Amino acid sequence: MPRWVPVLIGAILVVMAGLAVYTGLRDRDEDTLLGHVRPQRERRANTSAPPGEPGAGSSLVLHGESGENTPAANAPVQGEARAVVTGGPEGVTSVIRIWARRGMVLDIQPVTTMVYVNDLPIGEAGQFNTMDEAYEFAAPGSYTVKLVPPRGAEKTYIVTASEDADSDVARINVKL
User: H or E stretch including 10?
Assistant: First the structure.
């Protein structure tokens, strides 16, 4: 065997070990991390709940037996889906308009972001993150959806529920 083969194998092993440390692989024999790698953040346990119900630790806003806390529809917004940016020296705000036939699905980070529809709280964003847990609007019309994260800037969307909308469910995907 040529002398360069063992040298090449050794060099490849050293490179692989360096990549293992760099990408954060853990030493399986101990609970310690190799070198300078930081530990991962602890993740919240994902508890299962019936569709439409929040998991453990999530907020659930009850709408009352007679629906007195159900957001009422505003007059439908006319025009095309678009973003409207306004502001001045005090800051810039944006409102995004979306159309859907029946509801919305939220893919919001962080999932603890509080969601308001027409200034009424409906719960945390994590409650409405799958098609099975979509928030359904009570009646056709426009709804102002305000996303308020634990810290950071809030976002505003106007979702118009209309039978002639292109999509059945509006998808709001944002990292706050």
Answer: helix 4-23
> Under DSSP, is residue 12 helix (H, G, I), strand (E, B) or coil?
helix
3-state secondary structure of 47: coil
Cα–Cα distance between 88 and 106 in angstroms, integer?
Answer: 29
Work out the pLDDT band at 165, boundaries 50, 70, 90.
confident
Whole-number Å distance between alpha carbons of 145 and 53 = 20
Q: What token pair was written down for 40?
A: 């991962």
- The residues spanned by each domain of the chain are 1-39, 83-175
Count CB neighbours of 8 within 10 A: 11
Model pLDDT for residues 4-16, shown as the tens digit of each residue: 999 999 999 999 9
The architecture that CATH gives domain 83-175 is: Sandwich (2.60)
